[in-house]
Fold this protein.
Amino acid sequence: MWELRRLQGLFMAVRSPQQTVPAASAGSPGSAHAASGETSGGTNSPALPQPSLSVFDAIAIMVGLVVGIGIFRTPSIVAGNVESELAFILVWVAGGAITLIGALCYAELSAAHPDAGGEYHFLSRAYGKPLAMMFGWARCTVIQTGAIAAVAFMLGDYAAQLLPIGPYGSTIYAALSIVILTAVNVIGTTQGKNLQLAMTFIEIGAIALIIGFGFFGSPEVSPAPALPPESAAMGMAMIFVLLTYGGWNEAAYLTGELKNPSRNIAKVLVTGTAILVTLYVAANWALLSILGLEGLRGSDAVATEMMRQVAGPAGATVVTVAIVVAALSTLNATIFTGARVFYSMARDITLFPRVGEWNARGRTPANGLLMQAGVSLALVALGAATPDGFKAMVDYTAPVFWGFLLLVAFSLFVLRRREPHRQLTYRVPLYPLTPALFCLTCLYMLHASLAYTGSAALIGVAVLAAGLPLLWFQRKDHPPAPVAQTATTPSPTLLD
C-alpha cells in the first residue's frame, strides 16, 4: 500500500546515513556517502539495524506495507483487460507469485548491502552514481509525484460519489487535496503514529466489510453476464495488479532487523505473500460475486457500487467515507515523505540550491514541498485531459518504475559477480533461476507498460530523459550535514 509503504520507507529503508533526512528516496546525496561503501569508519557512519523482529512481527509489517487503497480502484481496470471471471481471479494469484519472487531477490540485496539508500544504493554500487542519480530524478519527477497524483485521483473518484460537483469533480477534489495537504505540511503539522495506524485499520476494516458482504450478502439484481472486452490486454491487467501489491520491496528490507534472517526471511515472505494473495483474492471474489465482471468494468468506485447493491445508500456512504479518509491519510503520508526526495536531490544537484533548504521553524523541507506540489498539480492537469486520470498517472509512472526495477533485479547478478567473497547472510533460493525469472518479469512489464498504455507513458519517459543534463550539475563532493542543521532536519516522528 502507498501509505505504510511510505511510512516504513521513512523509518527504515530510506533514511540518510546521517539520519537527518528520512527521505523516501534513495536518490539522496546523503546516501551518496553510504553508496561508496558500507563500512566507513567515520563518526557519521549509520548505526546498523539490530535483529529484534520475530517472524510474526515481520509478517504483520509486510502485510501492513502492502494492503492499501489500491484494491478499491484497480479491480475495475483489471476486469476491463481480462477475458473471463476465471482469468480475473488467476491474475491476482499470478501477481502474488511475482511479488514473492521479487521479494526474495530484494531480501538478498538488502541483506548483503544493508544501507539506508535502498534502491539508490544497489544501483550506485552496481552501475555507478550517474545512473543512481537518474533514479533519484525519476522519483522526484515521475514515480513519487505520479503516485501523489494517482492517489489524489483515487480520492477524487470516491469523494465525487459523496458530493458530486460536476464532470470535473474528481479532478477538482484531487487538486484541492494536494494543495491543502501540502499547506499543512509546509506549516509543519506532524502526525502521530496512532493516527496513521488508525487510518490503516480503517482501510483493513473497509476491505473486511467488502469481503463479508460479498460472501454473505445478495445483490438487488443478478450480475449481468460478462461480454467480451473491447480490448483485453493481460499485460495491462498485470500492471494494475502489481500496483495493488506494491510495497513488497520495502518488506524485503526487514532482513536487517529480523532475528536469524537466513532461516526466517523465507518464512516471512512466503507466509506474508500467502496472506496477501488470500486477502486480495477474497476481496476480488466478493466484488465479482456481487457486481459480476461487467459490473466491475463499468464502475470507477467498485466498493461503493457493491455496498449500494447489498446494503443500500447507507452502506455505500459508510464505505465511501472510510475510503476517502484512508485515501487522505495515504496522500498525506506520500506528500510528507515525497518532499524529502526533492530536498535530498537538491542537495546533490547544484542547479536547485533553494529546494535543498530546510525550514527550521516548521521543521519541513518547505521549498521541496512547494516544488513537489507544483509537479503533482501539473500531473493532475495532465490526467484531467484524459478519460481516466488515475489510469493516466499509472501509465505515466509504469515504464520508468519497471525500467529501474529491472536494473535493480539485474544488479543481483552484477554484485554477486563483482563481489564473490562477500559473506551473504541470506541467499535467494534457486539462484540463478529465481532472479532470472524476476528480470524476465520486469522486462515483460516494461514492454507491457510501453505497448499497452497511452501517451502518458511516453511523457514519463521523456521527463526521465530530460533529467540527463542535470548530471552536469551534480556535486562532486557532497559534504555531510553540519551539526547545527541536523537539529532541524527531519526526525522519524511519524513512527515515534
